[in-house]
Amino acid sequence: MNDKPLASSTNELLQPLPAAMMTPLPKHCEDEPIRLPGSIQRHGFLLLLDRRDNHVVAASDNAQEFLGIPLKLILGTPIETILEREVLAAFRFLTLADETPGFVTYLGSFQMRNELYSIVTHKVGDERILEFERIDRLVRPELMNAVITNFVGKLNQLGSEIELCRAITKQVKDLTHFNRVLLYSFDEHGHGTVLAEENDGTLPSYLYLRFPGGDIPQQARALYVLNTVRIIPDVTYTPSPIQGVAGRPMATLDLSMALLRSVSPVHLEYMRNMGTISSMSISIVCEGKLWGLISGHHATPRTIPYLVRSACDLLTKMVSTQLIGLRTTAKLGKMLHFHDVQRRMLTQMAAENDYIAAMKSQIDFLAEVTDAEGVALIVEGQCELAGITPNRQQVLRLVDWMNTREDMQLFATQHLEEQVEWAEEINTVASGILAIRISDVRQSYLVWFRPEVIRTVKWAGEPVKLKPEPDGLHPRASFGAWKDIVHGQSAPWTEMEIESAREFRAAVMTINLKRAEEAAELSEARFQQLTHALPTLVWTANDDGQLTYVNQKWRDQGLGHEGRWFEHNRLADEDEMRCTDLWKQAVAAGTSFEAEVRFQTPDGIERWNLVRAIPFLHANRSRAGWVGTCTDLTDRREREIALRMTEKLALTGRMTSVIAHEINNPLEAITNLLYLLRDEILDTGPAKSYIAMAESELQRISGITKQTLRWSRDSVQKASSALAGSLFNDVQQLFAGKIRNRAVTVTILRGEDVTIHGVIGQLQQVLANLVSNAVDAAPVGGHISLAASTVDGAVEIVVGDNGHGMTEETQRLIFQPFYSTKGDLGNGLGLYISQEIVEKHHGHLTVRSAPGQGTHFHVLLPIMTP
């Protein structure tokens, strides 16, 4: 194995457990009171003293075996009658010293009843626990001092984390002589990987194997941090319960710091399944967190003296300090790198007016902000890529997903497929992403990518949850290596990389805020200049209608710049009352305000104005105020009146022409009949004179009809040209009130610049008829479309609506005179006259419609040269 830093090795060996395998232990196992077992292991005994350290208030049941005194004589007995003189002397010296609460104190090794014991003590609340651990040999303190001194000297020569792990593993093996000593560290998911091993070949090797996080419950991990050394000399022991005086229950006695604390039956069976009869664990705690464990295993029962265990613990703490130092050094180096990258980029961005453009120009360096393989900068749908990334379409699809997470400021994952269903498509380039939102207004993001890193993970036993058996809870029955290929995951994002992204986001947001402030000032200046240059009245107001800004045009009208915009004799009385009510409704609903009102000019003349006001919002979507405009409608209203008069005159002329034409045919028939009748009448009598009079009157009527037909033809205007957009706008203005009342939306799809040639007044009448019918046909809130285009040497105008449509029968009759689908509201002449006008222009008027699909009228006119 190469001497790589542990962090590098960890990245190569560790991968998070697949989601399907990350199953927690059964609840009753997690809730097992491992700190309160109520019993101890049998390789020693325990006494609990009262708050004055005088009397025994509880003892382990096996104390009578070690002391040769019945338990009932031990409980309640003064400590002086039980302990040896040397032990009492050491104990009383301790009670006189300044003892640190919560820590275990070693009193020494003593001989009692021809047996050697290591004696330790610690306080539990106001009471004291004394533990007597039987040992098979004495350990010379000077030997331990030599070991510690030599190891400290070796520490200075170790330059990487993996070297430290190997060194401490070997040292523990040399001190304890266990068959196997393992060192394994935990990842962010709690899974452990064996990084170093010393093995004499008695037990199988677990080097580089992984142990699922569920093997060690969370409460056990917390206890490993609190009590860093744990010894189990013989897993086949029978627990010795703790008995209290006068039936005092011992189930609540906290044995967290007790060396003899009994072990969970689940863990004992776990050890037996591993083939280990004896074990010892030493916690590696870094910055208050359980970084890893050193575990010693033996195939037969084995006792390790307290001083040896303490020496192993002390050496491990030194290694922990060294690990923290190495990691701190590595972090500082990484931090300096990130800060240097950020400083270089932010300096450039701050110097440019357009910081987004500055970021784009340095896109190749952006990946270094998080040590990613690729990066994407997305601003309002525009995407810049550098390094190994998905394609633009895939990145924008990912942005659509991020847009659904409104509260997202920073997002990091090494397994994107868990979050995004379709992410399997981009695993090879983006199994992991780290994203920050750099603008809440413009939907802008920076996204860093890491590709898939396929790992072969060797698990020590299949990582599935423990299953309850009929006779109790059992861990896995075997520990053979079980391989799992982990797909769809990248190398994990470290806390420092995530923090670098967070800091970069904060810096970008600061620059963004500064630019926004500058833009706001510039925008305010532009707004004022623009509004002053506009020919319309522009103003802003709060929810009460109080003016907060007016443009120069408003001031020129002498309307004043204070108070409510609809008060102070600005409007006609009835308009002021109506606007007051409409304004309250608009403010309450948060919708736009619109009304046609009469403003009083300084010289007392009333002019019609269309007042529109819309709310504008803060960034947090709260209403900031209202901006309004007043458009003078007086000239437009006069044009509308003139246009309506023209339409009426045109209609009258058409009707006159039709009537004259229709009268002329029966007149000719009557004239012929009178001519025939004259030959049948005798010359005598008044009959012939009557017939002559009738013929004279018929000739007069015929002359009148011919003159009318001749006047209709002679009244045809001369042809000219106009743009379709102009006709569209005129018609919209003509029916603006009707359109507004029905809340219809009129959309000009295309062709505003198409030139139309003909009698413009008549063509305008055709368009007016079609639009009027469309407004009537469209539902309330519906929409109408206008379009013009050049098709095969002709100009086509299309007027469409989304109304109910027409049946084939209606389409067949629609162009006949006096046929109407509007009942009493229509005279049935509009489409008839329109078709006649179009045909006189050598064009065609057709309809395309179906029930439920709306209606489209097509006007096809030839292109003519004026």
In brief:
The chain has 866 residues and is of the alpha+beta class.
Question: How is this structure best described in words?
Answer:
The chain is elongated. The two termini are 93 Å apart. The longest helix has 47 residues, at 634-680. It has a seven-stranded antiparallel beta sheet with strand order 1-11-3-2-6-5-4. A six-stranded antiparallel beta sheet has the order 9-8-7-13-12-10. The model is unreliable at 1-28, 465-478 and 710-715 (pLDDT under 50). The chain has 24 helices and 34 strands. The chain is an alpha+beta fold and 866 residues long.
The total strand number stands at 34
Main sheet: strands, sense, barrel? 7 strands, antiparallel
Category from helices, strands and their pairing = alpha+beta
Note the beta-strand portion.
15-25%
Cα-based radius of gyration, to the nearest Å: 49 Å
Global outline: elongated
Lateral arrangement of strands in the main beta sheet: 1-11-3-2-6-5-4
Task: Please give the share of residues in helix.
Answer: 25-40%
Low-confidence stretches: 1-28, 465-478, 710-715
How far is it from the N-terminal to the C-terminal residue, by CA? 93 Å
